[in-house]
Design goal:
The structure holds 2 protein chains of 2 kinds. By secondary structure, chain A is α/β, with parallel strands linked by helices. Chain A has 6 helices and 12 strands. Chain A is globular and about 45 Å long. Chain B is elongated. In chain B, 50% of the residues lie in helices and 11% in strands. Chain B contains 37 helices and 19 strands. In chain B, strands 1-12-7-4-2-3 form a 6-stranded parallel sheet, with helices on both faces. In chain B, strands 8-5-6-9 form a 4-stranded mixed sheet, sandwiched between helices. Chain B has a 4-stranded parallel sheet with strand order 14-13-15-16, sandwiched between helices. The longest helix of chain B has 23 residues, at 34-56. Classes of the chains: A alpha/beta, B alpha/beta. Chains A and B meet through helix 4, helix 6, strand 9 and strand 10 of A and helix 8, helix 10, helix 11, helix 12 and strand 9 of B.
Chain lengths: 186, 755
């Protein structure tokens, strides 16, 4: 029973490049991916826990333009950067082990655009927020919906299609999908 | 006067008359287009393989199916309540629900939304419901520029074609044909060998501009959660996300049947849809959005944030509430539009959804939809393409009995049909039926079971004259029996005449089984029944042979339900004394076993059907059981076989015993992976379908011809004829091999097909 290990295996079978790391290595992991992608500019969606805004600008500041989505950043700057962005970073409030996927919540922080517009995206999810099965996941969403209902995109790998005869990745969304699972602090 | 193909519109209709092209001509043209046939076959077979693999990998699949079915049944029962619930939920959130009575109502409402916002352009994600209401045409007429953003739909729109498949809109197009569309409409300088990656890059560039500049986004909805007003969209490309998120105005268009009560109810559908549709465990994206989404849209042209999002859910009735009240069509409302039934259908695999389809919907499930939302005339155009092979039934994630729906529609179409007085009089005398007037062709084939005992009296004459070209020409001209199809040869002495009868002396000491002398086996393949009787007797069983008369199989296949019901009752009355004695009813012909086990459930009282179903055993099943109990001994060592199972056996997962038996006896058995031979009873004998039946049979013919050293076996009467006609080989029934292996001397006259 290793939910993180199971998650990483299943995510990999979706075409996601998934890794786990301790919270203090998050910046390093994101920088490595940004370097591999040679990404500039980078856009990100500020998360309520401050995981990204506390880490990402410093970690990626090495000669890159890093733009926060509103409300931390300005609409105009985000609108200018987003269509050109080569990497988008956001946090996910939940992940589903059974299918190795993350839930991106659509809020005023523009997670939707950040996780859709660039050719590559990183989604960060905390290990403690992984749920095992879809029954458990929908059970939680159902319970939450009794008071307030949000909007989520379940993301399981890159955007893809086989409509043109062969499987192609990177249709209207990212061609490369990275997920970082933040291990729980003991 | 004939009309050139190019003059028909994208829905296959002549713009002036509105009349659809002739189905036989469409089939003929489709069968001759090898490029399309290869594309369709390749992709549907691939999707079937992925679906089967995906199901095998998930142990909970069956539980999810049961639950999904139950949720859909409940949701359709509660439709008015769920409509009110979603209205309330969205009103509280600032969204709006519009219940459109029909296509015109929906289109008027949506066009008005665009006009109020001064919208010039709209982006759309894939939605069959918007195809159904012809939304694009209506919006374009209102001055909006509408672009389809799903890549398949994008290609279809450029080519001015309608989607031919629910999830693969251009599944009928080869890669070469897709490149041609891009060369014609996007970039004339593209090389002919341009890759799918490059085409995708091009399409992305074109469409991203459209997303960023669109005033209005239009999506469908795979599911609508009544309690919260949330909509769920199951996608892979990301275009639906753009469509919902980029423009300030989002309109979701969904049939009322997409409503489900709660968020929790989504779970089985979330699991079932991708596995059944594309064979993926899950799709890349599952959007579960409760509109209006609270982040303000950004205008990427100016960098200005908009004020609020505007959301409208347009729920479409357009005949659906009528379908909900219709006991036959109601099941179609459970459909989650995964397309698995299309992929599984042998006829669809050859002709695709433009031929096997109506104005919007394709395949067997499409027939029910067209009957419900467009009208029975539209269903009439392609209803006969459902052969009842039943491959779609196990493929359907919500257990819709598509063949039965099509049988009911066929029955209704029969009642609608006008006929000439002469035709009516002649056939009413020969094949009386409560339904008003099936065609001459249908009556002829529906009557085979009733006619064949009479023909047996004239078998030598019948077998001879039906070889005369002039007779075949007349049969084709008058009744529609394909002249190119060899007719079955009728046995001079049916099995019931040869069988000397069970020895009653030791009845008390021996277990008795009933061997059903069904009309097909009895009159066309008596040698098979003879082998079955001898194998059963060699196992120590006392064999009682019963001629059930007409079983209803033929009547049912032609959509004559009342006649089939009457015959089913007759069969039950014949067999009930045997059932009272707890005797197993051993059935040789797989389509009759399927009839007893499955379709009789629709024709008989449930307690009677239960008794007959429980008492029915297929010959392969009982022979395997006897062998495993050491009551039957013999060897097939050193012999190799190619074994083709009947489609209905395979669909019901009842084709495991025969291969197991033959392997246990030491035979080397290669089981055919071809789902359906194409013949499907009378289907392949009809002049308008003969060519299609032979085309469908090609993969089986190739498999049969692949290894000439293997003995060819087939369990079904029609499969046997189809293999014979397509390859020149004469398949035998597995029970004949078993009989040889157990070395029982023949006791009755020498048999032989048509001897």
């Amino acid at each position: 029973m290793n939910p993180v290990g199971d998650f990483l295996d299943r995510a990999s079978s979706n075409g996601t490049e998934a890794v786990s790391c301790s919270p203090d290595r998050l910046g390093e992991m994101m920088a490595r991916i940004a370097d591999d992608e040679d990404a500039d500019p980078v856009i990100y969606a500020p998360d309520p826990d401050g995981l990204l805004s506390g880490t990402l600008p410093d970690a990626l500041a090495d000669g890159r333009t890093v733009v926060a989505a509103p409300p931390d950043g300005s609409n105009r700057r985000f609108a200018d950067a987003a269509p050109r962005a080569e990497l988008g970073v956001c946090a996910a409030p939940m992940g589903l082990v059974a299918h190795g996927l993350v839930l991106v919540e659509l809020t005023e922080a523009k997670e939707g655009a950040v996780s859709l517009m660039p050719p590559a995206t990183i989604t960060v999810v905390q290990a403690r927020n992984l749920v095992r099965t879809s029954s458990e996941l929908f059970g939680r969403i159902h319970s939450a919906s009794q008071t307030e209902t949000g909007s989520w995109i379940f993301v399981a790998g890159p955007s893809s299609t086989a409509d043109l005869g062969s499987l192609v990745q990177g249709v209207h969304g990212p061609a490369r999908d990275y997920v970082i699972v933040l291990e729980d602090r003991d | 006067m004939t009309v050139a193909d190019s003059e028909y519109d994208r829905r296959g209709r002549h713009p002036a008359s509105g009349i659809r092209r002739d189905l036989a001509a469409e089939i003929d043209e489709a069968c001759r287009n090898e490029e399309t046939v290869n594309s369709l076959r390749g992709r549907t077979h691939f999707l079937n393989q992925l679906r089967d693999d995906s199901r095998r990998d998930h142990a909970d699949f069956s539980t999810w199916r049961d639950r999904a079915r139950s949720i859909k049944e409940t949701a359709i029962d509660r439709l008015p309540e769920l409509i009110q619930s979603v209205r309330n939920a969205l009103r509280e959130r600032g969204g709006r629900v519009y219940l459109a009575s029909d296509a015109e109502d929906a289109n008027r409402y949506i066009a008005e939304l665009g006009r109020r916002r001064d919208a010039a352009s709209a982006v759309k994600s894939k939605s069959m419901t918007t195809e159904e209401i012809e939304l694009n045409e209506a919006l374009e007429a209102a001055g909006l520029d509408v672009v389809e953003t799903d890549l398949g739909e994008f290609v279809a729109q450029l080519a001015e074609e309608r989607p031919s498949h629910i999830i693969g809109p251009v599944i009928h197009k080869s890669e070469r044909e897709i490149v041609e569309v891009f060369r014609e409409h996007v970039d004339r300088d593209l090389p002919e060998d341009v890759s799918a990656d490059e085409l995708t890059r091009l399409a992305r560039e074109v469409l991203r501009e459209r997303f960023l500049n669109a005033d209005m986004g239009i999506t469908g909805a795979n599911f609508v959660v009544a309690e919260t007003g949330s909509i769920a969209l199951v996608t892979n490309e990301g275009n639906a996300r753009w469509t919902m998120e980029a423009p300030p105005l989002h309109v979701a268009v969904a049939g009322v049947e997409k409503l489900i009560p709660t968020m929790e109810d989504l779970q089985p559908f979330y699991e079932l849809l991708p596995k059944s549709g594309t064979g993926q465990p899950v799709t890349s994206y599952f959007s579960l959005v409760t509109p209006p989404v609270q982040d303000a849209p950004i205008d990427y042209r100016t960098g200005e944030a908009g004020t609020t999002r505007e959301f409208h859910l347009v729920l479409i009735d357009n005949g659906r509430r009528g379908m909900a009240r219709d006991p036959a069509l109601r099941e179609a409302l459970y459909c989650i539009r995964c397309g698995a039934c299309l992929n599984a259908c042998a006829n669809y695999q050859v002709v695709g959804g433009h031929v096997y389809g109506g104005e919007t919907y394709a395949g067997g499930i499409g027939n029910a939809w067209e009957a419900g939302v467009t009208g029975r005339d539209e269903a009439d155009a392609f209803n006969d393409l459902c052969t009842g092979c039943s491959q779609c039934k196990p493929a359907c994630p919500v257990k819709i009995d598509i063949p039965w729906m099509n049988t009911v529609i066929r029955d209704r179409l029969n009642r609608d049909l006008e006929r000439s007085d002469v035709e009516g009089f002649v056939f009413e005398q020969l094949i009386p039926d409560e339904t008003d007037a099936p065609s001459v062709q249908k009556r002829f084939f529906a009557g085979f079971e009733a006619w064949v005992p009479l023909l047996a009296w004239l078998a030598p004459l019948f077998n001879r004259v039906t070889e005369w070209p002039v007779i075949r020409w007349l049969l084709q001209a008058l009744i529609g029996v394909a002249a190119d199809r060899p007719l079955p040869r009728i046995a001079v002495r049916p099995f019931t005449d040869r069988w000397t009868g069970a020895d009653g002396a030791d009845e008390a000491d021996r277990e008795t089984v009933v061997l059903l002398a069904d009309p097909y086996s009895n009159y066309l393949h008596p040698e098979r029944l003879e082998s079955a009787a001898e194998v059963l007797a060699a196992s120590g069983l006392r064999v009682q042979v019963v001629d059930p008369g007409a079983t209803g199989r033929d009547a049912l296949s032609q959509g004559m339900i009342e006649r089939a019901r009457e015959q089913a009752r007759g069969v039950y009355e014949t067999l009930v004394p045997e059932l009272d004695r707890d005797r197993a009813i051993v059935v040789l012909e797989p389509s009759i076993a399927a009839l007893f086990r499955d379709e009789y459930g629709r024709l008989l009282e449930s307690s009677r059907h239960e008794r007959l179903r429980n008492g029915t055993v297929e010959i392969g099943e009982i022979a395997c059981e006897l062998y495993e109990e050491n009551r039957l001994q013999g060897s097939l060592e050193g012999r190799s076989f190619f074994l083709h199972g009947h489609c209905q056996q395979r669909a019901a997962d009842q084709f495991t015993a025969t291969p197991r038996l033959m392997e246990a006896m030491g035979g080397d058995v290669e089981v055919s992976r071809v789902e359906c031979c194409g013949m499907a009873g009378s289907f392949g004998y009809k002049k308008q379908f003969y060519g299609l039946a032979m085309k469908v049979g090609e993969p089986l013919f190739d498999a049969v011809n692949e290894d000439p050293d293997r003995e060819i076996l087939a369990t079904g009467t029609s499969c046997t004829a189809q293999i014979r006609d397509g390859t020149g080989t004469r398949p035998r029934h597995p029970i004949e091999l078993v009989r040889e292996a157990v070395e029982i001397p023949r006791t009755s006259d020498s048999p032989g097909e048509g001897s």
